[in-house]
Amino acid sequence: APHSPFNVESNYRDMYADRTSSGSYARFLGMITNVDDNFGRLRSKLRELELEDDTILIFMSDNGQV
């Protein structure tokens, strides 16, 4: 789960830069989008390898705020 420091690639931060006046919040939102994108990439790879139907994906977080 996203937590500080909010270090994320600029393309993810830039997606939200015009939606908030807080650079920190834009980076936080970018981190969530990054997690979503990479989870999607994992699912696509499992589908490509024909493993999706035999795989259980569990998303867990150690962040108590989630």
Please provide a written account of the structure:
The chain has 66 residues and is mostly helical. 47% of the residues lie in helices and 0% in strands. It is built from two helices and no strands. The N and C termini lie close together (8 Å). 9% of the residues are buried.
The geometry reads as elongated
Could you name the ranges where pLDDT drops below 50 across 5 or more consecutive residues?
none
Helical segment tally? 2
Our estimate of the beta-strand percent is under 5%
The total strand number stands at 0
N-end to C-end Cα span? 8 Å
Q: Could you give a short account of the major beta sheet?
A: none
- Level of helix content? 40-55%
Assembly level: single chain
Q: What gyration radius follows from the Cα positions, in whole Å? A: 15 Å
Q: Quickly give the structural class.
A: mainly alpha
Mean pLDDT rating: 88
SSE order in H/E notation?
A: HH
Q: What is the compact description of this entry?
A:
The chain is mainly alpha-helical and 66 residues long. The protein contains 2 helices and no strands. The radius of gyration is 15 Å and the shape is elongated.
Provide key terms for this protein:
single chain; 66 residues; mainly alpha; 2 helices; 47% helix; elongated
Question: What is the strand and helix layout of this fold?
Answer:
Elements: H1 10-14, H2 23-48
